[in-house]
Write a structure and sequence with these properties.
Helix Hairpins, 4 helices, 59% helix, flat, Cation:proton antiporter, membrane
Amino acid sequence: MTTSLVPLILLGGLTSAGVYLLLERNLTRMLLGLLLISNAINLLILIAGGPAGEPPIWGRGSEPQTTTADPLAQGMILTAIVITMGVAAFVLAMAYRTYRLTTAEEVGDDPEDAKVSELASKDIAAVEEDRPQPEAMRDTDAPDELDALPGYEGSK
């Protein structure tokens, strides 16, 4: 199977632009990035579906095509479009609600997350202080009391 280079370049461009927009702190840009990535995934499924062919319906066909198109790729793309619409509606509703509450579209740092992060770093420092440090004298080649089995007197 041969694939044209143009859809692959378009796929890479859509994915990179979508990731760039998704990493922004603006909810509208995040939504646009999500839509670009979903369109890139749809293009990837279309490319992976193989070459075009006859419609996958019995009794319908065109003369020049000898192969049948894969209906699985078409069904997966339609399902992905519906899922993308649902996720986009959710993100859009979340952006609208955030704008109504704060009159800003930027996603800020959550003060509760900052408190939890600060407490976690303090807890890690406290655990590190309480951890017993290995003794330097113990690391020798001499046999320890745990090296021998109980009741074993050695070979006689």
